[in-house]
Amino acid sequence: MEPFIIIKPKVKPVPIVVSVPHSGTSIPDELRGLYVPKQLQLLDDTDWFVDKLYDFAPQIGITMICAKYSRWVIDLNRDPKNTALYNDGRIITELTPTKNFLGEKLYTGSGPDHQEIERRLHQYYLPYHNKIRQLLGELRQQQHNVIFFDAHSIRRLVPTIRKDAFPDLILGNQDGKTADARFIAATLNVLQSSNYTVQHNSPFKGGALTRSFGDPKNGVHALQLEMTKVNYMDDAEINYDEQRANNMRGLLQKMFSTLIEMVSS
């Protein structure tokens, strides 16, 4: 069984792939007994409902890929060699996390050894990345430019990353390295035209997926959008809030409409 779900376009495909790597909640049966039971009940680092928030995308021609398994099995947005994405003192969760973003222990024991990490890498991580590479390659054969868009969410306040609350939206592109400046500018222009607070490459520049696939010189442009969960969930960051989500979906649809027009021309 593939560790991801592909949602194909419902209309003529456009050269955009949306990735949702952190909304998966499945834990393989053979691993469940290794985790702290309370943590399994919470799955607190999940990007809850992001797949639902973006489920309009196939209706406008966008291909979606969504992870099935929890990021606690293996984090699809970390470097496969476990190299840290940032070195500014924030908490760094591993390729196969042994603690959550609050620094709490996930395993009853010491966590996966090297052999187990390699197994998960080949069973869950590489298939997701290889499928994205395939999807982008197929679209690239038909279009001069394609866009890889990585969709994420985070709690409003995570003091182990920074003391202050996060802005509503954070666009990441590794300081302009993973996408052409015109796609970055157009995306920022739409986001900043809203009532949401927006930051660019701070405090998130894009994770391993954005950094891996962004190759603007060869026509592949990668963007990551991080958003705080209260923009589409309730104040407790537990339940999906239809009104908030619909407001955000309207902005996302406007953003994608702009990008579709640009990348298809």
Number of extended strands: 7
Q: Judging by the overall fold, what is the CATH architecture?
A: 3-Layer(aba) Sandwich
Residue share in helix: 25-40%
Taken in chain order, the helices and strands follow as EEHHHEHEEHEHEH
- Arithmetic mean of pLDDT: 96
- The domain count comes to 1
Ends apart, CA distance between termini? 37 Å
Quaternary structure state of the chains depicted: single chain
Secondary-structure-based class equals: alpha/beta
Strand arrangement within the widest β-sheet reads: 1-3-2-4-7-5-6
Count of alpha/pi helices: 7
Fold-level CATH name: Aminopeptidase
Gyration radius (Cα, Å) is 18 Å
* % residues in beta strands: 5-15%
The largest sheet is: 7 strands, mixed
CATH superfamily: Zn-dependent exopeptidases
CATH class: Alpha Beta
- Shape, principal axes of CA atoms: globular
Which runs of at least 5 residues are low in confidence (pLDDT < 50)?
none
